[in-house]
Structure formats: C-alpha cells, structure tokens
C-alpha cells in the first residue's frame, strides 16, 4: 500500500513535489498554523520564527512569511455610513488564471514585499509605496473582515505588467496576496504605479472570503480598483524612472478614464508623503450577500479596464 507524503502532519496536495512547491493555500496554512502554535507556546509570532517555516529556495519566497504578519493598528472606519465598494473589471492583465497566466497558484505569492519576482528574484525600481487596505464585512455587521484574502497587482514605473508585457512575461513582481488581520487590514510594500495610455494610474485588487478560495479567481467576493491622487502622480512622475509615464498622464483625467469617470469617491486612495516614499490607505466595504455592484466602467472579465491586450489602454511593449 502506498503511503501519502506529509508535511507537519498534513498530506501534501502535490505528492510528487517538494513541500515548498505545494502552492499558495498550502504555504499560508503552514504559516498560520505555526503562528498559532507559537502563540500557544507563548513564543509570539516574531518574523524570525515565521521566516523559518517559509520556503527558502529563492530570495522571493522568504517574504511569504509576512502573510502571517502581526496585527496592524486599526484604521478608524465610519461603519454607520459605509457603502459597498463598486465592482470594476480585473482588466486584461490579472494574472489570476482568468486570462492566461496564474500567479495565485505559485508558492511564495503570499507576501508583503511585491518588488521582486517569485521565480527570477529580479527586482523592480520605483518610488516606494506602502498600500494598506482595511476590508469591512458589511454582511457581518460592518465588522473587520478578518481572514479575508486580498490579491493586488499593478503596473511598474514604465507602465508594464509582469507576466504580460513584452520583455517581462517571465517576471511576477508587483503581484501579491495578504490575509487580513484582526482589524481587517492588509498592507503591501510596493512602488507608486506608473501610467499608460488610456488609464488613470491605479491598483487592481480582488477580495476573497478566505485563503482557501484564492486559487479559483471566480470565487472572489469583490473585484475593484484604487485610484492614485493627482498630486502624488505629478510629484512622482518627475522622477526619471517614470519618464515614460509623463506623456500618458498628460492625456488622461479622472473624467475621461473609463473606470473612474462614473464615481471616484469610494476608490480614491488617501496618500501621505513619508519623505522617502508614500503611504496609501483605503477602506473597502464588502457585502458577501449581494451580487457584486457593477460600476458603469464594467465588471470582472477583462473588458472595460483598458480593453484587450494590444487595444486602447494596453501597457507599452
């Protein structure tokens, strides 16, 4: 009789692969299980201890330990007047398996630092940016959506998307997943997005009820986008690394953007200058009991967010 291979008492879902190659859900379960055990033992969840349970085959996988990061200070949320975030297209370059490449099944994608690629270890350059998202469970009495998994992705300083744009199809930078803490918060270390023709600078994201759902993008409970404020873009695009973003940004306004033109109030990031970079915060209301609330810009599926690859709004080659 064949005996199933196990790791820390759990059967490996991919019997022929090593423990570090079991995929996102297995990675995060391992991290959270170890954090829980450390808490039972009274050892805390220090980054050194968590790092020990992360795969170590590439530099990028070390950062996956941040999926189980310590609880962040709560952001004040007006739960009395909360409105559900409108649904937007995931665009032509989601990398979630709905349009070709699927980064969500890659080991190490659960991470805070998005500036490196999982396989190559190559890094991306730009002005540092920390994005914090507070997810609120409207169906649960507007409580913090603890345990929700959030996947974000965006273009680089030159307007390119990893996994899709010419020259960077083998990269996976500026894509990552975090699990919301007790305050419903996730935080990512990334760069300020660049700009390409036809779109206002933005960050894409998908929210899932739990990490167990994230390898099937169709199970997400919200797909939407975050807009970067104009003054931040103007300041950042003066940096030589963003030279190719200057002209596209001069051609676009929030009123002419096909996603944000109908309404921007709930999707505009609140950004502060940190001196050596920027920090953005936004509150995202999610109602799991309703259909996703479609914006006039278009719903999930790749159309309406800049068009199909090669069409209007596509990032430069």
From TrEMBL:
Compositionally biased tracts (Low complexity): 56-76
InterPro entries: Intradiol_dOase_C, Intradiol_dOase_core, TAT_signal
SUPFAM superfamilies: Aromatic compound dioxygenase
Amino acid composition bias (Gly residues), ranges on this chain: 296-317
UniProt biased composition (Polar residues): 77-90
Start and end residues of each Intradiol ring-cleavage dioxygenases domain: 100-199
Biased composition (Basic and acidic residues): 7-16
Region (Disordered): 1-22, 56-97, 291-317
Any one GO MF annotation of this record: oxidoreductase activity, acting on single donors with incorporation of molecular oxygen, incorporation of two atoms of oxygen
Organism domain of life: Bacteria
Assigned keywords, A-Z: Dioxygenase, Oxidoreductase
Name under which the protein is recorded: 3,4-dioxygenase subunit beta
UniProt organism field: Corynebacterium doosanense CAU 212 = DSM 45436
């Amino acid at each position: 009789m064949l005996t199933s291979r196990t790791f820390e008492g759990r059967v490996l879902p991919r019997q022929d692969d090593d423990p570090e190659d079991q995929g996102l859900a297995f990675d995060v379960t391992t991290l959270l299980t170890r954090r829980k055990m450390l808490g039972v033992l009274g050892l805390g969840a220090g980054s050194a201890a968590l790092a020990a349970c992360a795969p170590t085959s590439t530099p990028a996988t070390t950062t996956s330990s941040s999926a189980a990061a310590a609880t962040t200070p709560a952001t004040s949320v007006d739960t009395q007047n909360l409105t559900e975030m409108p649904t937007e297209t995931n665009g032509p370059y989601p990398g979630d398996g709905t349009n070709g490449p699927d980064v969500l099944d890659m080991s190490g994608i659960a991470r805070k630092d998005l500036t490196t690629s999982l396989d190559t270890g190559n890094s991306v350059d730009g002005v540092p940016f920390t994005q914090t998202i507070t997810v609120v469970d409207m169906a649960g009495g507007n409580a913090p959506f603890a345990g929700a998994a959030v996947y974000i992705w965006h273009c680089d300083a030159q307007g390119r998307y990893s996994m899709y744009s010419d020259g960077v199809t083998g990269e996976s930078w500026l894509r990552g997943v975090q699990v919301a803490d007790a305050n419903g918060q996730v935080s990512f270390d990334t760069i300020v997005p660049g700009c390409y023709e036809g779109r206002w600078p933005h960050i894409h994201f998908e929210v899932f009820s739990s990490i167990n759902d994230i390898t099937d993008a169709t199970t997400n409970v919200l797909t939407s986008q975050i807009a970067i404020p104009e003054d931040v873009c103007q300041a950042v695009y003066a940096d030589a690394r963003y030279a190719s973003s200057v002209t596209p940004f001069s051609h676009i306004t929030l009123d002419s953007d096909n996603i944000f033109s109908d309404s921007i109030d709930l999707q505009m990031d609140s950004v502060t200058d940190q001196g050596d970079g920027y920090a953005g915060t936004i509150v995202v209301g999610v109602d799991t009991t309703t259909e996703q609330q479609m914006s006039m810009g278009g719903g999930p599926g790749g159309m309406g967010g800049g068009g199909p690859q090669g069409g209007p709004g596509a990032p430069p080659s």
